[in-house]
């Protein structure tokens, strides 16, 4: 028999490391008041703390302590300090299972050391990868958390669970509904880039139009340029919020509509006209504040996100197939090729991804035996493609926010919030209160 | 037995190791017939295979495939071959979580590669530590196994969960009920040993009485001698089966009764008479077959058990507090001292135990949110002390076998079986059939 891979989970040998977490107990009603735990994802925890206003707004009503826990290998929680990313041996302890174990130990430690916290019911909250972790945390540690809110958590964006093309389909739909011909012209732009960039003068023109800090010179440069633009459209769809906000970048309200204002050409437009519009559109994302003297293709989102760490996780456990066909989406056709991906991972980190492991360890679509998890999804969010969009049981429930982008429900409330997100937050709080009541009726046994 | 010997290649860091497992599909009704998985514990899987007749006897009735999976670091499943135990760096991948991950990957791969197995419901079965693993396997991988039988599984024998003295209390009760003054005379024997061993001639007499391969010479020798005897009484209680059997050692039926025949003295007995009786009793355990020319204090049980590996696991995750007081038990008083234990572990392996981790990762007494686990316990089994002895929910149920020793229910049926174990096995099969029906009604989603 030749078989697939086994996961290796290790503790940090004999070493220890400092994990950062933030606590706010202003409204905590001790003893026994609930603890809302933000399950940190791939970035600096202070950034998530500042972008999860929902928790701050419900703390008083629930009499809850807020805890924001940083994920190992991100922010300041670096197990080996500056060496943490030096090679695959040091990176070997960066796994989602290890992160969950850290969170579990943190909570047990809080309960054993914080006066009045011993019987506090804990609710896990997270968005995106943090939402996946919060759902998995409830699945794997139901003794530690009484329930979980998994906001925009694509727990099914793994091999064999959802079609690899859905993600970019949703991006495309956002642009299609945000302005006349908007998706059509982006679909055209790739060929226009190929045409214009075929000459040296064209390359120079492109570089100037997009005010690139580093002018385009090579064919590979054009490939990364197109990849950078594709990532730009994806990010815009993710943060298509109904009000001015600064999540990945400072942006106006409904940024995709603003972008599409520059992309409303009819079919007679020339390549140069079209790409001029595209450059204007891109600058909405990269220079809304007008403070950028040039656009840096290596910066597509906030530096608070740990790009390298997430790339390593994608190269080990978090294998998320994506593909485009240029028909149902507005991008150049590209199939999902696991072997190519695996070879890139091997070249970058000396590791190869475990395509099936996430499904094995976290259950894939076979999660009906678990309980007390809310999966909230935004209709504008590309990550909806891998999300749980229907009720699995009466305690594994799905909440849809049609006008919502990436975990809009976790953000501070805003006058421009659509009714759907207000209703979602209200329902989420109702479930929190129900879980807290259940837990208080049957207090957990102390393990001290 | 008719089984295929198979090897699973697992990745370990950048290397691989072969995990051994045994398959018997003679009675398997494919497609979709159930798989009974024996979750291997700390020893050679063929030994557990031969001592789990229950599975062989129910295979035909259930149309089940039998799989016996070996636990990493035991038997022939040595990740680093002969170096696997060389130091803590090599031992670092010996954890129960890793073992569960191996089993999960094994099952997923069987389902993906064995024609007709893709939708086969899998039931985990195990005894002792293997029973703990089977319960934990259902808790952590409900997507992989539809239910679990945890036979004589002390999942609560961890710090803060049960009194540390209960284990030896049960050992003592077994001897108390198996013969006149039996526990009383064993309780007396420790002082008698101290008295007799205080002289050189007494030491020599002791060594001769017990036919020790290596004569006693030092004070430390006496301490290990008493420890060896204590372990002997514990093992006898564990294997106090109602028929002649060979589990830890070849023994007559109801061995504790046979042993107690030599320990029925009244209060007037002399130290030498008493210890002569003790030596006769010990020889029931060590020389029932009469084949041993001398007793080797370093051999107290079958070599099929991985003593060193289990000691390492006890020194890391599997911290099981034990204590005696000489009043409710028949042993010399000894408190549970974590620090002393931790120092011994540090000296032996260079590691220190994590006292609270098992409770955090496996839930301790807070397991009510899980389902489909049978905890069976024997009334004569010392490990009953750490077992689940009451129904937690209507699908986390406890089965008591008053006349049973250590996982008697997993053994081949025997004419001398008490009605309680026959009833237990019948009830276990009824639950298996119920879990299989449930699973067949709602087939698991294929993840291939």
Automatic annotation (TrEMBL), chains A, B:
Biological processes per GO annotation: angiogenesis involved in wound healing; negative regulation of systemic arterial blood pressure; proteolysis; regulation of blood vessel endothelial cell migration
Name recorded for this polypeptide: Lysosomal Pro-X carboxypeptidase
Catalytic activity annotation: Cleavage of a -Pro-|-Xaa bond to release a C-terminal amino acid
InterPro entries found in the cross-reference section: AB_hydrolase_fold (IPR029058), Peptidase_S28 (IPR008758), Ser_carbopepase_S28_SKS (IPR042269)
Source organism, top-level taxon: Eukaryota
Primary residence: other
Entry keyword set: Carboxypeptidase, Disulfide bond, Glycoprotein, Hydrolase, Lysosome, Protease, Signal, Zymogen
UniProt organism field: Mastacembelus armatus
Biological role stated in the UniProt entry: Cleaves C-terminal amino acids linked to proline in peptides such as angiotensin II, III and des-Arg9-bradykinin. This cleavage occurs at acidic pH, but enzymatic activity is retained with some substrates at neutral pH.
SUPFAM superfamilies for the chain: alpha/beta-Hydrolases
Coiled coil: none
